[in-house]
Amino acid sequence: PKPLSPNIYYLFTTDEAENIGANGMRYTVIDMNLDGGMGDVDVTQKNILLFAPCTEKLAAVNHCNDTSVWVMGHEVNNNHFRAFLVTANGIDTNAVVSPVGFPNMSNSLYGIAGAMKFSPDGKLVCSISDSAFKKVELFEFNAYSGTVFNSFTLPTNNTSLNRALSFSSNSSFLYIGKFGNNQPMLQFDVSIYDSLLISNSQVNVSPIFNRGSVNA
Description:
mainly beta, four-stranded antiparallel β-sheet, about 45% strand, globular, disordered C terminus
């Protein structure tokens, strides 16, 4: 939602990896006052380009003022994060660019696919950077300035692709989901941002199972 405007929403999209992100990261305005109060796209503000090319990664987190919101994407063939601030005045298209971490390369399909997510407290961000090299990176985030910094690579099992991630609701634990059969879920304690402590905290928290055979 647009801050302080309960009837206006922003829909952010990123291009799929198969297109090498050429269509870019874009936004569309949805006005809930349109279509007799059912809501509709504002056709004058549809699919507006923010930057291109982009990876599939897309994440959002509250600004430290608890009113504005940071929305972040990642460029292709470099290590640049782009954070856009959404305020009561709209979207600031002058992104905060943070060159940090491993480049997301277009020579690997999974290099620009994958997940990115903020911790609920807005202090950390995790990105599956390049599955060709099976990297998962953790960063600190400044929710005031929008900058990403202080990265390190998590010691995940390099025999399989990393596909999904999430933080616990209290921001103390990070979970990494692996792709393929017989792959466990990994848990890391990230309550203290120390690369050695986090690396040594790794445990498997789910049973090993075959895809398609899990009973809900």
